[in-house]
Amino acid sequence: MFVLKQFCSSAVVVMWLATLRSGKPAAAFATRSLTGRNQGNRSGMMSTIGASIPTQIIPRVKTSDAKEPSDGPVQVKGWVRTLRKQKTLAFVEVNDGSNLGGIQCVLSFEGIDEATRKGCAVVMEGLLVKSQGGKQAVELTATKLKVVGDCPGKTYPLAKKRHSLEYLRTIAHLRPRTNTIAAVARVRSQLAGGIHSFFQQSGFVYVQTPLITASDCEGAGELFRVTTLDLDRVSNLPLVRTEDGNGDTDEIDQSQDFFGKPAYLTVSGQLGGETYASALGDIYTFGPTFRAENSQTTRHLAEFHMVEPEMAFADLDAAMENAEQMLKFVVKHILTNCDEDLQFFSKFYDKGLLERLKKLVSRPFVRVSYREAIRYLQEEIAKDPSAWQFPDVEFGTDLSTEHERWLAETKFESCVFVYNYPKKIKAFYMRDNDDDDGETVNAMDLLVPGVGELVGGSQREERLDVLLAKMDELGLDPDDYWWYLDLRRFGSVPHAGYGLGFERLVTYVCGIENIREAIAFPRYPGHAEF
Which of 1, 140, 161, 403 could be stapled to 105 by a disulfide with Cβ–Cβ 3.0 to 4.6 Å? Predict the structure, then answer.
């Protein structure tokens, strides 16, 4: 009983000192403790002491933040990458996804759980100490290891050390656990944050435009249809009645669909963005877009993300200047915040990656007209036409990737704006150039080494009569764009903007070839898994 009383008194003193430091009264604790003792209620005394002594909370440390020895015990939570056993010690590499290298944890051989193997989820507890090796600054001297999620080695698809990127796409739900895809995800996250930071600091308003639309922004017709009509039962589809009302035609009655008209997944947020730019000045959108293009190339996806700023009282030069400054800002942000991942990509995927990124930040972008670009290409192709997949180049040619990359990588060795494209290969909303009788439009593409086209933009056609004439020429119904045309009727101003394919930016910054590695779950013809 003496021991219990002594412990009780000590507990009261400890709590009293603690409350003095916090500035809060200790009366409640003292009264409860003394009351229990005076009444001779041992069980009451014990419950009071047990409820009042605070439980030690061991902080969790992300592996990316484990840079210095700790003053006390910490927890590391993640997944086992490797496990080595040597005599009395075991070395467990744990990665929680916050960085590439993870952290090495050292513990006694007896402390290893039988279920500890590659891929299992663990919680480890111990002290961060200076590392004995040279690969990392600190390591965890672990005193506890708990397996919270087993991972049977015989059936784990990532049990082997190396897998092809093609194979990893078949297990896209597990591929973020690999070094490559995890590094892509971290860089992608920083890219998105950098883009938002640039536009927010530049005074742009972030606008979310609709994903479901009745408009074809590009006029290309490569749209995914959205419908609630029962396509599994064709005989039940509603049909338009004949004029005399006595029968049905072969045309589906779109008024019976969910939206009362044909609806599609958007290919761009630009048209909606223009409406807000016409009121707020400078805006940007950043969201998913869709295109039903039957392409299996390494550059195309059916579902992707677009960054689309729109600027009122702006021309094409302003759009090019903004695009250049945005890219320089974002790439500099990545060079500052993603060094470990960039070193990994430079080592395993693109030896010249870091040099190329630094060159983008430090050098001004080249600007060349489309006519000049065609002339340069014609001169080069004439030297050896057999070296080119598409040797026929003339005014009106839609430049292919090999043309774009030659201009950026060989001719100029720099990022290149090509501007003033032929009218017939560009979208209806681009402003006609007055100085060549409307043969070209005030449009631009940004070509970058290693990728080709990364950005496309234009000054928008703000003249109502000219825009209506172009829509008529392309067979677009003005009634479908009545609200877009209203922007030209009421307070129209010169305005410009551009679109940046976000996944293409990811491939460029990471130095990876296939855009299907730049997004978590790629969508392309014949593939919509996960």
Answer: 140
Token pair 């009042």: residue: 52
Pairing relation of β-strands 212-213 and 263-265?
Answer: antiparallel
Can you say whether the dihedral through the CA atoms of 427, 430, 431, 436 is positive or negative?
negative
- E-strand spans in 394-466? 416-422, 440-448, 452-459
Kindly list the distances between the CA atom of residue 435 and the CA atoms of 77, 403, 445, 456, 520, in Å, as whole numbers in the listed order.
65, 26, 20, 22, 46
DSSP code per residue over 143-169: EEEEEEE---TTT-TT-SS---HHHHH
Which residue type sits at 28?
Answer: A
Lowest mean pLDDT among 242-251, 286-295, 360-369, 372-381: 242-251
AA letter at 454: L
**pLDDT value, residue 260:** 94
Measured in degrees and rounded to the nearest 5, phi and psi for residue 220 equal -95, -15
Does the pLDDT value for residue 72 go beyond 80? yes
Q: Rounded to an integer, what distance in angstroms lies between the CA atom of residue 190 and that of residue 331?
A: 10
Please compute, for residue 2, the number of CA atoms within 13 A of its CA located in the half-sphere on the CB side. Answer: 0
State CA 434 to chain mean position distance: 39
CA 123, 129, 131, 137 torsion: positive or negative? positive
The region that residue 213 occupies, defined by phi over 0 for left and psi between -120 and 50 for alpha, beta otherwise, is beta
Q: Are strands 239-241 and 248-252 parallel, antiparallel or unpaired?
A: antiparallel
Q: How much is the mean pLDDT over the chain?
A: 88
Query: How crowded is residue 176: how many other Cβ atoms within 10 Å of its Cβ?
Result: 14
- Residue 45: pLDDT above 50? no
- Give strand pairing partners of 264: 213, 225
Residue 335, both tokens: 């060079």
In the chain, the amino acid numbered 303 is: E
Compute the half-sphere exposure of residue 110: CA atoms within 13 Å on the CB side of its CA. Answer: 1
φ, ψ of residue 459 in degrees (nearest 5): -85, 135
Q: What is the pLDDT of residue 54?
A: 63
| pLDDT (tens digit per residue) in 199-226 | 999 999 999 999 999 876 655 568 999 9
Quick one: tokens of 523? Answer: 């969508």
pLDDT digits (tens, 9 = 90+) for 442-464: 999 999 998 999 999 999 999 99
Q: What is the pLDDT of residue 309?
A: 98
Helix axis angle, 339-348 to 179-201, nearest 10°:
130
